[in-house]
Amino acid sequence: MIELGLARVQKLLQSTPQTWKAIHVAGTNGKGSICAYLTAMLRANNITCAKFTSPHLIDRWDCISINDKAVPESVFRHYEDLVKQRNTDWQVDATEFELLTATAFEIFEAEKVQVGVVEVGLGGRLDATNVLKHKTVTVLSKIGLDHQFLLGDTLPDIALQKAGIMRPGVPCVADASNPQSVLDVFRTHGQEVGASLKVVTSESSPVVAALQEHLEPHQKQNLAVAHEAFRAAFPQYAHASDILISAARNISWPGRLQLVQIKSLTDREEHALLDGAHNPQSAEVLAGYVDRHLRGNSAAKPVTWVLAASQGKGLTEIMQLLIRSGDNVAAVEFGPVDGMPWVQPMKTSAILNSAASHNPALQHDSGTNLHDALQWATSTASGGPLVIAGSLYLVSDVLRLLRDTK
Fold first, then answer.
1. CA-CA distance, 232 to 228, in Å (whole number)?
2. Confidence (pLDDT) at 212
3. CB within 8 A of 239, min separation 6: which ones?
4. Where do the DSSP E strands lie in 20-178?
C-alpha cells in the first residue's frame, strides 16, 4: 500500500527522540549513490553514522546500516516488532513503509549514531522520512518523471514535491544537471521556506577532479553533490580532500553498473552487467555505458538483455534507449518483494511486445523462472555482452540467487 502523509509516522515516533543529525536526500535518480558517497565520507572522518535507503537489496533489513554494515536480522526484527506493537496498540494503521521508517529511526537512536543519512522513499514533502527533526543539510538529486500518479505529471510538479524536504535555515544542495525549470522550482521554494540553495556541477569538486578518469558522467555529478553536502554539514573537515578522495575511490554501489560473475548459475565465463535502471533517466545512463564499454566497434557482438519491470512502468522510452536492432531479449518476472506487497511484476508478454518494435534478433519468455532467463541469455550471448536490467527488484533476485548458490 502506498499512502503518502506524515500523521501516522509522527504518531508512531512521538515518544522516540532523534538525538542525531540528519542528511536528507530526495530525487528520482542518484539518491542511493549520493547516500553511499556520503556514508563513505563520514566513515573516513570517523563520524558514527547510519544509513536508510529503499528498497532493500537482498534482505529486508539491509536497507538499514550502521557504519556501512547492514544491521543484524535479530536487531531489525526486535525494533520492527516494537514498532508494529505500537502500531496495533495505538491504532495507527501505518503503511509498510511508515513502519519501516519508524524501525530505522528507532535503530538509529538505539545505536547512538551521530549522523543519519536518509533517502526519501517516494516524493519528499509527504514522504514518511520527512519527519526528521534535526536536518543538517538536504540534498536534491536528478529529477525525472516517475510516480506521476502521486507526484504530478510535469517535472516542475514533481520537483516541488521533492523540494518539500527543505527546511528554514538548513542549506540545500542540488544537482546542476537538472533542467532549468526544475532548478527554478528549487530556488523559489528555497526562498519561500528560508533555505539557502547551492547548485553543484561536477566541475566544482576537487574530489571529482582527482577521480574523473575513473568515473562515469553521472557518477561525477553524484559525487560532486555528495561532496558539497558533506562540506555543508561538516565544514571543519572540508579541507581533508585526500581522505575524501580515498573514500570515494573505494565506494561501490551494488546493482548500479555492477559487473557480476554468474558462472555458479550458468556456464558463462565472462562477467554480466547488472543494473537497476527502471526509468528513462537511469536507462539513458545504462545505455550510454553499454554503448561506450560493451558495444564497442561495429564488429562487436549484439547485446543480450535479461529484462524485468514493475507493473505501471512505461517501457516505450526505456526500450528505445536500450534495445538496438539485432539485440537479444529475455523477459522475466521478478518474485514477491518482502515487505512491499503492492509491487507487482509486469507480465513478460508485455515486455516482449514492447521490445519487438526495436527488431531484436531473438526473444525468449522465461515467465517467473530467472534461472531459465540467465541460462538462455548465456547460451544466446555466446560470450558476448550480457546485461540484466529493468528493475531494482530483478537486481535483488539476481543477487539473492547468487548468494544462495555460493
1. 6
2. 80
3. none
4. 21-26, 49-52, 64-66, 69-70, 115-119, 135-140, 172-175
56 CB neighbour count, 10 Å cutoff: 19
Domain 6-250 has CATH 3.40.1190.10: yes
Please list, in sequence order, all residues whose beta carbon lies within 8 angstroms of the beta carbon of residue 103, skipping any fewer than 6 positions away.
64, 76, 79, 80, 83
C-alpha cell at 191: 526562498
Q: What is the pLDDT of residues 44-103, one digit of tens each?
A: 999 999 999 988 999 999 999 999 999 999 999 999 999 999 999 999 999 999 999 999
Runs of H (alpha helix) within 250-279: none
What pTM did the predictor assign? 0.90
Q: What is the Cα Rg of the chain in Å?
A: 21
Residue 167 CB-density burial (10 A; 0-12 exposed, 13-18 middle, 19+ buried): buried
Q: Give the three cell numbers for residue 176.
A: 546542476
Do 115 and 109 contact (CB within 8 A), yes or no?
Answer: no
Centroid of chain to Cα 401: 20
> What is the rounded CA–CA span in Å between residue 329 and residue 386?
10
Decide the pairing of beta strands 49-52 and 64-66: antiparallel
Where does the chain hold its CATH 3.90.190.20 domain(s)? 258-404
The pLDDT, as a whole number, for residue 204 is 81
What cell does 231 get?
Answer: 562540506
Start-end of CATH 3.40.1190.10 domains in the chain: 6-250
Give the rounded distance of the alpha carbon of 18 from its chain centre.
24
Which positions ≥6 away from 183 have C-beta within 8 Å? 174, 176, 199
Q: So what CATH class is 258-404?
A: alpha beta
Taking alpha carbons only, the member of 24, 26, 12, 22 closest to residue 102 is 12
